[in-house]
Amino acid sequence: MHETAVPQVIFGWNAAWFASIVFAVVYVLIIAEKMNRAIVALLGAGLMILGGLITQEAAIRGIDFNTIGLLLGMMVIVGVTGKSGVFQYLAVWSAKKVKARPAGVLIMLSLVTAVLSALLDNVTTVLLIVPVTLLITEELKVKPYPFLVSEILFSNIGGTATLVGDPPNIMIGSAVGFTFNDFILHAAPAAVVVMVVSLPLVYLIWRKELVTSESARNRVMNFHEREAITDPRLLKQSLLVLTLVTLGFILAHTLHLQPATIAMFGAAALLLLDNYRHGSEEQTRRVHHAFAEAEWVTLMFFAGLFMLVHGLEAAGVIHAMAKQLLEATGGDKTTTVLSILWGSAILSSFVDNIPFVATMIPLIENLAPTFGGEEGLRPLWWALSLGACLGGNGSLIGASANLVVAGLADRAGQPVGFLPFLKSAFLLMILSIAISHVYIYFRYL
Amino acid sequence: MRTDIVTLSMNDTFGGGLKTMAEQRIRSLPVVDDKGIYRGTFDLFDIWEILLPRAALLEENSVPDLSFLSGSRELLVEKLNEAGPRPISEFLDDDKTSIIHPDAPVEEAILLLYRRSTPLPVVDRKNRKLRGVITAWEILQLLRA
Amino acid sequence: MNTDPQVIFGWNPAWLASLIFAAVYALIVTERVNRAILAMLGACLMILCGLLNQEAAIRGVDFNTIGLLLGMMVIVSVTGRSGVFQYVAIWSAKRVQARPSGVLIMLSLVTAVLSALLDNVTTVLLIVPVTLLITEELQVKPYPYLVSEILFSNIGGTATLVGDPPNIMIGSSVGLTFNDFVMNLTPAVLVVVAVTAACIYFIWRKDLVTTEANRARVMKFNEREAITDARLLKQSLSVLALVTAGFILAHALHLQPATIAMFGAALLLLLDNYRHGSEEQSKRVHRALADVEWVTLLFFLGLFMLVHGLESAGVIRAMAERLLVATGGDRTTTVLAVLWGSAILSAFIDNIPFVATMIPLIKNLAPSFGGEQALMPLWWALSLGACLGGNGTLIGASANLVVAGLADRSGHPIRFLPFLKSAFLLMLLSIAISHVYIYLLYL
Predict the structure, then answer these.
(1) pLDDT in tens, A266-299
(2) Do A275 and C37 touch (CB under 8 A)?
(3) Cβ–Cβ below 8 Å for A412 and B54
(4) What is the CATH number of the domain that holds B83?
(5) pTM for the structure as a whole
(6) What DSSP letter does each residue of B10-25 carry, written as one string?
(7) Domain-located, residue B54
């Protein structure tokens, strides 16, 4: 969808300037956090339409409904699954498996976060893991800080491993046509290495805080994790649907299906199983509640963002940016790939990785002719994926999941400050990117 | 409306408020400053919030139930004792306690009692002074007379 | 549609599509399973079976309709928090000295006017509670008021582009503007309003009596106290005025309804939130979005995909050909058949899936009647038939079911047959008026 003619902006303003200014203003407002991001993105998109930069149809075409549908479907599935109490069960069970030793609990909960993040959307994963983490640390009388920081790091690292684990990957996969298996084969290895390296480091950094008394540990060992399962029937149904959906993702290519269809079908099936025994009005209430609980602020933000980026594209701004990138790297593939890796990582730390990736995708697509077509772009995509996902660990504002954890921590009276987080996390992030650098260099260049 | 009510002053502490509540078996105590201006209410919910794990107070993101905990009294006693010296002013800022003006219709009082059944502070519209409280029993007496 | 879809097992696409659609439909009518779930399962089933691929399914969704509904739902939900709907209801009741018959007329008119501008379901969700309150204080049966509000929500919604989902869908698909609807349909609607109001008065005249004391009590209501947030009120009314102006000037500004509605919604959310901190804003915006009728919107989503599947399989074209055969290709007959057929069918099957299916069907008739322009009377017939037909029974339109649900919960249930007895005849009367109107103006 390349718009050939430059759009007619009101008052005859230059389209490229208009688009860039609207986008930049939206961006600054989002970072400043003075205004809710969904509102800002929608207003920005609306301005682009009102200003004549894009028509409503073009704006709608610019929305990646595959990404939104996949996120919505997974949010609903996880929301319903959470009602069974399985996440609390998992956390308590894993804490008891290591005899409630704080260091062991830290490792277990981080691994649980990583695995869940790989399959489920990051934000929902941390929304489910953090409360029970706070509970366990309160009972153990240890500071929750290292646990929360570690969960932030591992939610981003785990999410890097699969197509569905982190929004940047969903967006890249959707735009380029990568399958679930592509990500497992290409991104997961790097993610696994990063995890293996980061775990001992996290332990070393916070070793001193991970001590507690025998009686506190006994208290946690006396938890009855089975009581956490409040709805066994729902548990069975949820696990069934989750298994089916995961299988669907793996076999998607063979079945000629796209992720959004699989996720929405799973959501509808789970809603059916959870509701068919109730009366009509009760069903309406429950289904409404299931959908109402989806992160609409995030989804609306995505919608507005996609439209904004489409406006930038229509005005030729992305094309210009791509040309600048090529000039800067001299058109050399290795340099370009590695600069995308490091550049994405640094930028993703400070700029929310989602708008960043949304802008980079069409930019990289513009580089296709220079690097020998679609196939030649592959290393660039993996560099973007690893850089954007792992870069999200660099600072508190690097990824949405980070902010969610910070918000919950704040409300629980255990705030995670921006600079303290940066001091520990940034170096770990740089290390993870160095690992990715070596990986990409040896595998693709 | 009852005017012979027990109140707390801004100089009281959590521990003092708790003692008064437990001994007099009152669910909520209005807090006034030395000018008689209503500043907030200290009630049972403030006590429950101190005792509950933070994870259960995260509203829609809270851990939904605590049936799997092990029932430990010592931790709770500790929490209560720790909170004792804290000034009462720290517990006044919750938007869940409603107040009612002297001229409001009785239906409004019933609605507010329905939503959170603690005695309702009656606060003057202009000078914010505490005039008294409305309890459930008074309303029933009013309607059954 | 470029290539023929590869349906699994090599089944005939037309039969498979019809089967899935019919099954979804039947299950929706039985109310055993929530309609959003059914529509989504059906759509996904069509994709799984190879009738559609995901991109085609997404292309089949009318996002203009969904965006318009979403935007208006958010605007109305935020506006409702200011208490303005309670204010309007009480103010209008006092204007007629709280006489029950007067209150009936006033509340019905308020419902009609609000329904014309706002989505019907949200309108009745805001008007019915305060209606129940007023009738309880007046000690009159709420039944006539609720029935009347059902009727007038559908009638009022017929008058404009944005008032009723059928009109939104038709306008969106055909490219009709807000002014097109006002100029072509509002006159008919006004006549129907007048006639229906008179009939309702006559039918329930005997139930509309109360004592002097009751009336005096309602007259003492202080409607100003109903405004709980004066600042929000001003902001909401400004945004509503802007949005309405936007709809009227849409064609001149080259804007579509969804953009206007969503922009208005974002603007109102901004005004309502900028004074709060970041986390508080997140919570409030989330709540505003959570209050949206997602069941309805997702039902629409699935439905559009299902109909697109029917289209791709050639089923709609076949149905259009049958219609032409039945009416002998004569335009007048076809237009009137669409009017009456839509009305009767819309009374018993939810008018939204019905209209979703009829739109591509009527488009298929273009060649037979001489092009796009000649289809106009058919569109007005469909609009009047589907919107007014929704009054025929309790299941005719979503707003009806919502009122029935609220009535049930408040202890004054509205039963299917009693409603049908009064409403069906009034609906037929309104269609007869439309018949005369269309005949004289377009044929």
Answers:
(1) 999 999 999 999 988 889 889 999 999 888 988 9
(2) yes
(3) yes
(4) 3.10.580.10
(5) 0.88
(6) TT-BHHHHHHHHHHHT
(7) yes
